[in-house]
Amino acid sequence: MMDTTEEEQPPVFRRWSTWYWIIFLAMVVQVIVYTLISYSFL
Amino acid sequence: MNGLDWFVLFGTLALIVGYGVYKTRGTTNMQGYLLGNKSLPWWTVCLSIMATQASAITFLSTTGQAYEDGMRFLQFYVGLPLAMIILSLTAVPLYHRLKVFTAYEYLETRFDLKTRTIAAFYFLLLRGISVGVTLYAPALILSTVLGWDLHLTTLLIGILVMVYTVGGGTKAVSITQKYQMTIIMTGMITAGLIAYSQLPDYVTFGNAFSLAGEMGKLNLVNFSFNLSDRYNIWSGLIGGTFLFLSYFGADQSQVGRYLSGSSITESRMGLIFNGLLKIPMQFIILYIGILIFVFYQFHQAPLIHNVSLKERAMQTEAAVQLNSLEADYGEVFTKRKAHAERLVHGIQADDQALIDVSREQLRELGTKETELRTSAKEIIKANVPGANTQDKDYVFINFVMTYLPHGLIGLLLAVVFSAAMSSMASELNSLASTSTVDIYKRSLMPGKDDNHYVKTSRWLTIGWAAFAIGFASLVNLAENLIQYVNIVGSLFYGTILGIFLSAFYLKYLKGTAVFIAAVAGELVILGLYFFTDVAFLLYNIIGCVAVVVFAFIMQYLQNKRRPTS
To answer: How far, in Å, CA of B11 to CA of B109, rounded?
Structure first.
């Protein structure tokens, strides 16, 4: 993984971990929703 | 097609092309032409990334795929959000900080000129051939449906793309993609709504969903681990992440999109939102295919969705046999419709026994229908020389041409043209920038002014477009073409990814070792291709691993011979 120093991080991505978690949670939620859809009709 | 359709189709295309040319006129420097002055906001970057990935075949094929096989294809994209996170953390800040024009330029900073050149060369080979197919595949379908000459169709799409890509470069590609994507999604959702609105009145949206579910079409997620099954959650997570890392991290047609973002943040946001929106977008497209499937439970589907092929077959001796099959097919449909109605009533009344009986009947009739379709395809194949009877890609477009009102037919054709143009534009743009920056400017003609290189880029864009049009006009591989291109892609993708993986994460490795490994890795892949039966999808992983392993061995040997201080 590349090193990135603090001053190179633009403002929004000071909160980078927030975005990371949003997209990760969105993926998890999507998989859960799609799983529910799949299994409700089997 | 009537006058209104033609007006909507050509009006939409002319507006998009005209807007692209107008907004980007007078670009004369490299930064402006190849990176859009690094001025684009994240939503343009995001739509541009999505439009590049989604070619016309995506929209035509995916709906057909859902119609035949259900929605399990969605799992292919599960790895995408993870790949977007990894690239946002690694590739994006790196490319931005180094102010590179292409991904391969970075390889010279990290390794050396020869490694940069070989990666650029592999990319030009694989992308050069695939741009021909990006043009050929939709042109073949559109020419069949519209009854146009194939050469004329390829020429029309090719020239339309060339007009704004040559004129405005990267910025023109991105801003036109924003509108193309809007048209595409509006058109697709409209088509889905029309399919739904033409269902019998008593079938609610929920009933349509349940009906598809009962018939096994909503198989979105499959947790069983099976290497031979192409679509399950594990192959999507592992294989998909791997594939998307290489596609978005090392393929200039995508790297060029997010390099045009005005800052690291804008580029990252573009990628992140692509990760957030891509799966829902695919869900919508697949679900439109499902709605068409439900629609055809109540309206008779054609025996062969490629109607013009069937018409050709009807001119031959096959007509009698096809007519008889058609009659049987009609009978099966009448029974099917009655059972579909019963199934809906069962769902509405929550009558499990009725649901089970009708579902079983529908399954049996479905098998009969498939048998009749297979027989029809065999008859056509025997009577029409060189016929491609695979009609999955025609399901959606045939539905559009038959059941949509005038005006919307034009809009949906504009969707297919736009999707073809948006992917092709990115590919041409990336081919031109890589051949200009990594080959021409770096090795053939260094030290000229910006104006000279912008002119070269324009000529190279024209050159690649001419190549794509020529390729699409001359090839006639119909059935095997897409498979052929996937093989060519797989021959080089793994090696390119191996080079980039070494560059990003393996600091131990140096230029010469990676260069030798890139050559050796490619030879391994070519060896596998010519002398073994290994499935070509595995070439991606084998190529990548081979490059990394060879590079480690070479580096170790080199260090041993010349110990570093």
So the answer is: 46
User: Does A41 reach chain B within 8 Å, measured CB to CB?
Assistant: yes
- CA distances for B72 relative to B61, B78, B217, B366, angstroms: 14, 11, 8, 19
Residue B261 phi/psi, 5-degree rounding, is -65, 145
3-state secondary structure of B252: helix
- Rounded Cα–Cα distance for residues B507 and A22 (Å): 31
Place of tokens 């290994």: B534
- Sign, Cα dihedral of B173, B177, B179, B184: positive
pLDDT digits (tens, 9 = 90+) for B173-212: 888 998 999 999 999 999 999 999 999 999 998 889 889 9
User: Rg of chain A over CA atoms, in angstroms?
Assistant: 17
C-alpha B120 chain-centroid distance = 22
Predicted TM-score (pTM) above 0.80:
yes
Give the mean model confidence (pLDDT) for residues B287-298. 93
A23 and B505 in contact by Cβ < 8 A? no
B239 or B518, greater pLDDT = B518
How far apart, in whole angstroms, are the C-alpha atoms of residue B235 and residue B223? Answer: 10
CB contact under 8 A, A38 and B264: no
How is residue B466 written in tokens?
């001419």
Residue B76 has pLDDT above 70, yes or no: yes
Candidate from A1, A11, A13 with C-beta closest to B505: A1
The residue type of B364 is E
Question: Is the pLDDT score of B349 beyond 50?
Answer: yes
> In the 8-state DSSP scheme, what is residue B441?
I
Of chain B residues 515-554, which have a CB less than 8 A from chain A?
none
Nearest to B272 among A8, A10, A23 (CB): A23
The answer to whether the CB of B174 falls within 8 A of the CB of B256 is: no
Please state, in angstroms and rounded to a whole number, the distance separating the CA atoms of residues B276 and A26: 7
What is the structure's pLDDT at A1? 40
* Residue numbers in A near B221 (CB within 8 A): 31, 34-35, 38
Between CA B292 and CA B303 the distance in angstroms is 15
B residues 442-461 lying closer than 8 A (beta carbon) to A: none
